[in-house]
């Protein structure tokens, strides 16, 4: 699939094997376009998301960019099987999340360096004042799309994309934690669904 790059050139996504991955709870899935909504921000990271919203101009929907299981771990899909939630706290039987992973062949949006994004996630001690230099480390404004994609392929678990919305019907691949969830999604008319477990 050919995707326009920032400078008007064309980059062939089929040559990269990369996909854009987004995981979310089954109960929040719609058969159609999903929009980011600041009302549902994780309370622990809400101020970081508000900072990002001001930077990019929209409420962000996060997607991991890559082709490996390490990239998919950025989405939190593996939490389906995580029993330990804190130092001394374990999930009770039947109380696990039910995340569904949607993977897309091509999307546009704002790329971010995942490792430098942690500057913002940990900036509560300075009231989320992030310097221009730190902001450039996160967004790398001089990088074209093809450079981001090369970097994602060479360095798994390093690149994420944010955009205001995504049409879940256009996912090229969907993973679920069990057959029951697969059946529910098929009833919603989703296609290309597999039951797929990944190791913690």
Residues in helix, %: 25-40%
In the predicted model, the low-confidence regions spanning at least 5 consecutive residues are 1-15
| Count of beta strands | 13
What is the count of helical runs? Answer: 6
What value does the average pLDDT take? 89
Query: How far do the termini sit from each other?
Result: 32 Å
Rg over CA atoms, rounded to whole Å, is: 17 Å
**Inertia-based shape:** globular
How many distinct folded domains?
1
Counting helices, strands and paired strands, the structural category is: alpha+beta
Sheet of most strands: 7 strands, mixed
Written as H for each helix and E for each strand, in order along the chain, the element string is EEEEHEHEEEEHHHEEEHE
**Percent in strands:** 25-35%
Strand sequence of the main sheet, in spatial order?
A: 9-10-5-3-8-12-13
Describe the structure in your own words:
With 200 residues, the chain is an alpha+beta fold. 26% of the residues lie in helices and 26% in strands. The chain contains 6 helices and 13 strands. A 7-stranded mixed sheet has the order 9-10-5-3-8-12-13. The protein has a two-stranded antiparallel ribbon with strand order 1-2. A two-stranded antiparallel sheet has the order 4-11. Strand 1 and strand 2 (10-12) form a beta hairpin. The protein is globular, with a radius of gyration of 17 Å. The two termini are 32 Å apart. Residues 1-15 have low confidence and may be disordered.
